[in-house]
């Protein structure tokens, strides 16, 4: 058994974040996982439509997914800037949108830093815009897509894991791992895998299993916001805080504060859905 744990703990050292490199071009697992996540979510939504679980035109669905992708990328990037490193980017504004660092000359770094909560805001804005543009019920439409989101999100966290980033706090548990990017060389919680399972697979099983038994339009979306917020809040106790932030409120991290806001948002959505949703039609 000791041999298994020794192999397990060294897995990050045997993973290459680059799938293939041709000249100066690199195809990386992280970006590929985003593509898989969007494609899987799209296919699951299409499955629901084809199974007559809900009725929306192809134009509405495709319009939403185009805007949702932009919402995730732009919202995730701007969310990271605002929530996690505003001071730095106020001093280096070009680095918000350019894959370059100007700290020590000009250095190509890629776009580094995305916020899940910022991405959520971007996607919610996409839902609102498409609902108004195509005159469909917001609460029913968001419940169409939400059950598919966690499974797609699983691949995003696996991308973090392969990248060796966002690892957990130091630990002595045997399933901990050593990450090449950790300068201290300590055994750490593989928090990316915790998130991939609980925020992804676990929430997907719950939402997908009750997708046709929602008590009212908007219930699934509220449940997702609350469920993700609760799960992520507790996983944050095992995730290493950003080094430039640490704990920002007592012993809570920025991620936990954002998750508390997400839980509150889910409760507000439940209230609005019960008060305004049922009276409208899709």
Helix content: 55-70%
Side by side, the strands of the main sheet go 1-2
Largest sheet: 2 strands, antiparallel
- Give the termini separation: 56 Å
Mean pLDDT: 88
Tally of structural domains: 2
| Total helical elements | 10
Strand content: under 5%
The residue ranges in which pLDDT falls below 50 over 5 or more consecutive positions are none
Judged by helices, strands and strand pairing, the structural class is mainly alpha
The helix-strand sequence is: HEEHHHEEHHHHHH
Say how many strands there are: 4
Choose one word for the global shape: globular
What is the radius of gyration?
20 Å
Structure explained in plain terms:
With 282 residues, this protein is mainly α. The chain has two domains: 1-49 and 136-282, no CATH class; 57-135, no CATH class. Helices cover 58% and strands 5% of the residues. The protein has ten helices and four strands. The strands form two sheets. A two-stranded antiparallel sheet has the order 1-2. A two-stranded antiparallel ribbon has the order 3-4. Helix 3 runs antiparallel to helix 5 (116-134). The longest helix has 27 residues, at 58-84. It is globular. The model has no long low-confidence stretch (mean pLDDT 88).
Short structural summary:
The protein has ten helices and four strands. It is mainly alpha-helical and 282 residues long. It folds into two domains: 1-49 and 136-282, no CATH class; 57-135, no CATH class.
